[in-house]
Amino acid sequence: MNSKIYPLQFDSILKERIWGGEKLKTILNKPITSSITGESWELSTVEGDVSVVANGNYKGKALTELINEFPNEILGTAVYKRFGNQFPLLFKYLDAREDLSIQVHPNDELAKKRHNSFGKTEMWYVMQADADARIIVGFKNDSSSEEYVEHLNDNTLIDILDTVKAKPGDVFFLETGTVHAIGAGLVIAEIQQTSDITYRLYDFDRKDAEGNTRELHVDLALDAINYKKVDTYKEYAKQVNKSNTVVDCPYFTTNFIPLENEKEVVNLGLSFVVYMCVEGSFEIAYDGVTYQYIKGDTVLIPAAMKNYNLKGKASILEIYIS
Fold this sequence. Notes:
The protein is mainly β. The protein folds into 2 domains: 2-221, Jelly Rolls (Sandwich); 244-320, Jelly Rolls (Sandwich). The protein has helices at 23-26, 63-69, 71-75, 77-83, 108-115, 145-153, 218-221, and strands spanning 13-21, 37-43, 45-46, 49-50, 89-96, 102-104, 122-129, 134-139, 161-165, 171-174, 180-182, 186-193, 199-202, 244-248, 253-259, 262-266, 273-286, 289-294, 298-301, 307-320. Strands 14, 15, 16, 17, 18, 19 and 20 form a 7-stranded antiparallel beta sheet that branches. A 6-stranded antiparallel beta sheet has the order 1-2-5-12-7-10, with no helix packed on it. The longest helix has 9 residues, at 145-153. The chain starts with 12 loop residues before the first strand and ends with a strand. The relative contact order is 0.18.
């Protein structure tokens, strides 16, 4: 692959959601055709939703095919050793025109046992926020399964959950077991383990176009929830042209790069790198070729791409596995 190596972009996988809107088009230039588009999956190997290369020599090829053909070159030697041919992360942009359901994700152990899946540790980077936009993250105070069930049955679950105002640039890190909901009026970049396992606790009694309510998973959630109060908000530095650590967990590391002109990157080949452009525009100069990106673009840097330069004026999320 070395002779053909280059930064990989993928066709967006667009998802209609009952809570979705049109900001993925107006703010992030996604080719949506529906007024209730809630998600753009940028990089995925979830079964049935595998990303397809959109540029260069490998255009039209599925990410899973590329990984099977060139596992070390794409994933990196350390990632391949740990995960085999599995791509362990999922990258999305979300547009919440309405509140998302209140939900929770199981940990690795529970997800493996019940669904043969990874758990779902995730982080949110707020790209756009309407006035007074909020998120729900965890409990106001330490709770219990008994208190949770009581409030759920009384239709007062929100009363014991912590609500936090969100603004552009805010980052929230949600470990598995954290009860949460993205509130109306937010556009978010989401980085998570490769998993589509969600237990829905409460959906504000809303109905779809056919008049149906969505399925809830109240019983499954009981032993998946962390009933302790948690701190999900992440403070981080914003040194120009530096990779400022935002989240560093066993599943991924995310850095924030405020790019003002140029930054040289040296990659050891241990892990792939993903860049999400959350503001502005930038380019990658590699092997005599320049690749250009704008707000809303996501790019996968194969691990075998050792040295390259970032140039431009942009805010960029840099993600890899350490």
